[in-house]
Design a protein that fits this description.
about 190 residues; Protein Transport Mog1p, Chain A; elongated
Length: about 190
């Protein structure tokens, strides 16, 4: 059997195409078989909650190994955001006192605009560990805090703020948001 160079190239390209289709099918199959990250109801109260008997939901991310409890009346959204370092997957929790966002992958700090901020360093407790965080507070009493850490080779970028509330008061809102962040736990 004598094969021409042209028929060997066609055979090789066909084999490569089949391999690419098989790998793509495998990848999609494993992604589709993973359980989606979902909130589950709970009647637990966040630590140090000062008012009422507000119930919470616990969000579990089996893919990225964490849980966080948040007020039941808050909304959640999962998105993929493209940043300069590539795609970042994030889950956002938002309510009347602010928002919390868990990013997988680092996000740049946003400090530009017509409302120049004050930027300061602070420490917060995440799953029993003191983590250095950057606080960005604007003159209109809105602001946000960013803490970045790595766990099991996954880069977490945890943010919270009150930049979307109608009656912002950053220091007061920060206390409530820190109570919610205190429920963040790694599961892996």
């Amino acid at each position: 059997m004598n094969f021409s160079k042209k028929s060997l190239i066609k055979f090789g390209l066909s084999l490569l195409a089949i391999l690419i289709v098989a790998m793509g099918s495998y990848y999609l199959g494993t992604k589709m078989s993973q359980k989606p990250d979902t909130p589950t109801s709970s009647t637990e109260e966040p630590a140090n909650r000062s008012s009422g008997s507000e119930s919470t939901e616990t969000y579990r991310s089996s893919a990225y190994g964490y849980t966080i409890s948040y007020p039941k009346d808050w909304k959640t959204a999962e998105k993929i955001k493209t940043v300069s370092s590539g795609d970042s997957i994030y889950t956002r929790f938002s309510g009347n006192t602010g928002w919390i966002q868990i990013n997988i992958g680092n996000q740049p700090l946003e400090t530009s605009g017509s409302n120049p901020p004050s930027v300061r360093k602070t420490n917060i407790n995440i799953d029993g560990v003191s983590v250095e965080a950057t606080e960005v507070v604007f003159k209109d009493e809105t602001g946000y805090l960013v803490a970045q850490l790595e766990q099991n080779k996954i880069q977490y970028d945890i943010r919270f703020g009150n930049t979307e509330t109608t009656n912002p008061h950053y220091d007061k809102d920060k206390e409530n948001l820190l109570r919610i962040i205190s429920t963040f736990k790694f599961t892996k």
